[in-house]
Amino acid sequence: MPFTEAHFDAMSKIIARYPRSRSAIMPLLHYVQSIDGYVTEEGIETIAEKLNLETAEVNAVATFYTQYKRKPVGQYHVGVCTNTLCAIMGGDEIYKSLLEHLEIENDGVTNDGKVSVEHIECNAACDYAPVVMANWEFYDNQTPASAKNLVDAMRQGNPPAPTRGPNRLVSWKEASAVLAGFNDGLAGEGLQAGEPTLLGLKIAKGQSGEKR
Amino acid sequence: MSALTPVLSAFWDQKDSFTIVGYKRNGGYQAVEKALSMEPDAIIQLVKDSGLRGRGGAGFPTGMKWGFIPQGDNKEHYLVVNADESEPGTCKDTPLLLANPHVLIEGVIIASYAIRANHAFIYIRGEVTHVIRRVQQAIEDAYKDGLLGKNIRGKGFDLELLLHVGAGAYICGEETALLDSLEGFRGQPRLRPPFPAIAGLYARPTVVNNVESIASVPSIIDKGAEWFASMGTEKSKGYTLYSLSGHVKNPGQFEAPLGITLRELIDMAGGIRAGHRLKFWTPGGSSTPMFTDAHLDTPLDYEGVAAAGSTLGTKALQIFDDTTCVVRAVLRWTEFYKHESCGKCTPCREGTWWLVQALKNLENGEGKPEDLDKLLDLCDNIMGRSFCAFADGAASPIISSLQYFRDEYLEHLSTGGCPFDPAASTLFEGVGVR
User: Fold this and answer.
1) pLDDT tens digits for range B337-359
2) I need a labelling partner for A63 at 20 to 30 A (CA). Which of A31, A211, B91, B321 fits?
3) The CATH fold of domain A76-171
4) Which residues of B touch A139 (CB under 8 A)?
């Protein structure tokens, strides 16, 4: 959609955060995704203009990073970790069963525009393997059945809350705004830590026999 | 049996551990008050004396890195925290920041003051929305509290701190690629020298430190270098986070003195998955050569792991049991390196592609025995022949797996395919949740 004055203001705010304007290119790309859902041509041109760069320079950056999408993704973008640890713990089977269930290919979107799926690399949650991300929120300890339930609920418009995240799953565009540096006020929601994160601490308290 | 030593994780079990109120209730931000009353050089010396070494993988002494920043040069200095945690298997900084972002911010203030930087950045990977929320909120709360901004705590020190969100590129965990990315370019490593301490961000003196390294600093200021150095081993001082994942009964985070062994950690994790035995594991992510059950008693410190032929890396202990096909595991890691190679250096860009082809053939039973030597030859032509250590990491799982499991590679050829059932490795095997 055409950018509004409010959008241009937000872009100026992003640029003003940095000592040198070019550093703002990544948050600006996240911001464009928060408006359009992906990096549009208009987005590239606007960023180039704002930063006094050639569009080719902005395209060069946008195409380097996998989180910048060049075509629309679903309202809920699902990433299944298929790096070695998660893959072997069951990620491969989860990924395969999700694509079959939704009848899409990798990076595909369901006909209703609700769900897209890609396989992703390690997402730093290996002690919660196999891990599924949705709009880059954690859905820990998944199985093929739980992942299918998750995407079914997304298509019905009522996905469950992330395992370690806010009380509701925000949309892809809303999450993109957070990545662009705009606080959505949800930081206080959700767990401070899951069980595996606390395992060593619990054992240590048992070891020392003291209550901290 | 080594005792665990929760310092960073000491109050993660409190519901509000991630808030400024929770952090202060547990003694947070007292180290800043103390540090801002010290001479910056005295802080650098204290961190040197503590023996703290980089927790991001390389293990370079943190205080020495800070000491490399030229002083009195009339240039801006920068502190950049590497929170781009992406090394396969590594999952320590992410839960740390989710549970307590303020300990990092406190460390950032102290480190910036020590190296005379008035501008600091936290470069966080983009695929962790809720962690980004927590860190963003923590920065805003620290500003409101006067811990960031102008004239912090009336001590005349100014510091601006900005959270910069990445966008899914493993290579940006490499410090010079990270700096290029932060400057608004494709994240590709730089040729060194000059090192970041001389010409880093915007060609100014810059310290790049891992999250856990910086988060360890407040405790050193609080309790002293001697306290820190009383933990760990001779050259690997202090406590650290070990992350256990994979085929153990209870995976998780364990904060222990450097030098604990995998045998001890697996015991605490409830043992290997019932009915199975340990087959292979990584001491510090996929880029560190793998170990086997022969290394259960190797001290997990920088020297102990190096003496046994690997590196401590990120202390990401990925555990695989006897149901796991090592060729499948290595192929998948190699596909990761092929995907994440930034493309700047030809040996890495082209070499990882060829490695995947050869490994795919082997996994599918379509290779030839001489392919094993070809793999090693390819690795030899990739390692040490590019700007950064990425290619060395790509070669590690291949070389080490051929060292320990050559027969298993050959078995794929004699049976004409993979002899393992992938379903048997899954955590939901036999649980009926398909």
Assistant:
1) 999 999 999 999 999 999 999 99
2) B91
3) Glutaredoxin (3.40.30)
4) none
